[in-house]
Each structure stands twice: as structure tokens, then as C-alpha cells.
């Protein structure tokens, strides 16, 4: 169906910001008659103001297409602390949707919702380093999405997807900030105790490793199962429980140096890890899954890694496209 020109034409950024601010103000419980009158005057003052407001109303009618948590956060911006998405992120999202126009909505529908509301994210194969406002350093590994929510009471990072390494400002500069520094995943919370640590959000669990200092882990469904990890330790935890501390596998941190390290690893497990750094499908037949891989491989060229594996093991590549690769027995 053709899109109405008024929907497809972008809104000027300054008008979009004004419209969203009015939208936020109208959610207030203490809204006055005078404020409502000023809002109506703003709409009447310019046809672009009215067009911006009509688009807000149009978007609000489409939130059933948005993942539930995101829709609720956007339609109820004055949420309580600790909700999944911050008011600031919801306002940012709505403003951007007004600016980019209806075609942008179509593009956005094909974008992971975490990337839309995240402060920082990386694509498959991309890595990034960010200095946060308190001086902490954040490294994002491939295909990662993070929101930063600093307040007067805490410094919170929401890891929606992927893997990060966080070095606290205290660890870097020996400064003292009374606000706790935390990373929250789907499974629970990791609190820094003056430290440098890695957090990997997986499908049903979170992996944590401590390089320096210590962290405290609390599963979301049972905060009483608090686990403290010291430097040189790692663990995994679910929403309900945490495994005991284990010695840290330093090979898991090789991505910080742009490398992928395998130590007598099954081929299927190695390919699953390598697939994080590529788009599309990467796998192998069951007949070769148990073959063993060892070595250190530069992540800047994943095709070269596959060629090296093909030369080292009795396997061959089956390629339907550059985005669909399977390894099968060479004979």
C-alpha cells in the first residue's frame, strides 16, 4: 500500500523535539488547563507542528508491532526506576522516528529492537571501545547492544545482547564514586567491586569473568544466591542460580586483541564461536563436528580462518552464498 506523503516526509529535528516534549508533558498527572491551551496553540501555530503531532498519534497506534517492553516504556514514559527501558531512551526513539519519516519506520521494523534503544551497539564482526561519563572504559565485542543508565543512585549498564568488558573508573584512576556500578542482563545483575571484568549475555545464561578486582553476582529470581568472584575466576548464572567459581579461561578474552583462540576445541563449538563474527549461517555436518581445532586466528578476516581450517582438517566448504557456509567431510 502506498504511503501518505505526509508520513514519508521527514519532520525537521527541532520540531520533532518540540512535539515529543509536548507528548511527554501531556502524560503528567498534574497537567493544567493552561498547559493544554499552550499545547493547542503550538499545534495551530504552524502546519508542520500539526503534522508532527499527527505523526505521533499515528505512531502510537502502531505500538502493537513493537516488542512488548519497548512499547510499554514508550507509551508510559514516567516509569519506575529499574524498568527495562529508560524514559530517556523512549523519548530518543520517538524523536528519531518522527525525524526519519514513514520509510524509516519500515526500516526500523527490520532492526533488532535492542539496537534502536541502545546507547552503543556493534554489528557482527565489529568491535568498539567507549569511555563512559564517569571515566569507566567499556569494550563491546561483536554483535553487542548496551544501554547506559546513570542516575544519582547507581551507574547501570543494560546488556541486551552480546559481550562487553568493563573497566571501572576506580580501577583506572583510583577515584571513588559512591554509586554502585552494575551490569544487568536477562539473568541478573553483576556489580563491580573496583574491577575489570567481562560479561557475555547468552541465550539462557550469562557468563562472567574477572580479570582484576572482584564482582558480586545476583540472579534475578533469587538475590539471596549472591556469588562473589575474585580476579582469575569465572562463572555462569541463570535467572535462578549461579555455578560455583571456576578458573578463568584467558583464551575467552582474546577478542580484546582481535584474536580467536582454540585449544583442542570441537569443530562445531569453534564454528559456533566464529559465527558470532560473521553474518549468515556457519555450521558443519555431524560427521565432522567432533574434529579438534587448535590455534590462534586473527578475527579481521573470518574467510581466511575458514580457509585455514579447511587446510588443517579433512573438511571442505559448501557455499550456497557468502552468507551460508557449511563444512562437510572432504572425502
Description:
This protein is of the alpha+beta class. The chain folds into 3 domains: 5-117, no CATH class; 120-251, Jelly Rolls (Sandwich); 258-329, 3-Layer(bab) Sandwich (Phage tail protein beta-alpha-beta fold). 32% of the residues lie in helices and 30% in strands. It contains 10 helices and 18 strands. The strands form 3 sheets. Strands 1, 2, 3, 4, 5, 6, 7, 8, 9, 10, 11, 12 and 13 form a 13-stranded mixed sheet that branches. Strands 15-18-17 form a 3-stranded mixed sheet, covered by helices on one side. A hairpin with a 2-residue loop joins strand 17 and strand 18 (324-329). Helix 2 crosses helix 6 (87-109) and helix 5 packs across helix 6. The termini are far apart. Mean pLDDT is 84; it is low at 62-85 and 105-110. It holds the Pfam family FecR. One of its GO terms (molecular function) is sigma factor antagonist activity. It comes from Proteobacteria bacterium 228. This is Iron dicitrate transport regulator FecR. Residues 17-59 form the FecR N-terminal domain.
